[in-house]
Amino acid sequence: MKQATVNIKNKRATFDYELVETYTAGIVLTGTEIKSIRQGKASLADTYCIFEKGELWVRNMYIAEYFYGTYNNHNVRRDRKLLLNKNELRKLMRYTKEPGFTIIPTRLFINEKGLAKLNIAVARGKKQYDKRQSIKEKEDKRSMERAFKKY
Questions:
Q1: Calpha distance 13→8 (Å, rounded)
Q2: Apex CA 107: angle with CA 146 and CA 134, to 5°?
Q3: Angstrom distances, CA of residue 52 to CA of 5, 70, 129
Q4: Can you give the pTM of this predicted structure?
Q5: Nearest-angstrom CA–CA distance, 26 and 36
Q6: CATH class of the domain comprising 7-126
Q7: pLDDT digits 0-9 by tens, 19-38
Q8: Euclidean distance between CA atoms 29 and 61, whole angstroms
């Protein structure tokens, strides 16, 4: 039985932030959480990562309650631990100590082994004029595609 591919993206990430470096991390989940993710019922909107006691945690990630779950269902916005090796954690911690840098999740997916993975990126916030430039480039690209479709 082939399972449907799960690919949940944080669309605001590339608009609000300039991505500097990306990593793929595992996530510690409960049984009902992974079942909800496999159904595609998760969101990365307004999600960010934070260090606590040398460990990296993802905050505010929404995973809907599992429909067939019982009283043992999970909390939808609980903090979830990310799994990275020590060198990656050290490098990320160095980045976060610098002003202007943050760690944000960009994509949640299920790998070929059936494990949930989270792509995270070290990001620098964009200024308002950078956002306007991004919008202008997107509109120009869209108008070019429309022009080519006519002919």
A1: 12
A2: 40
A3: 32, 31, 34
A4: 0.78
A5: 16
A6: mainly beta
A7: 999 999 999 998 888 888 88
A8: 12
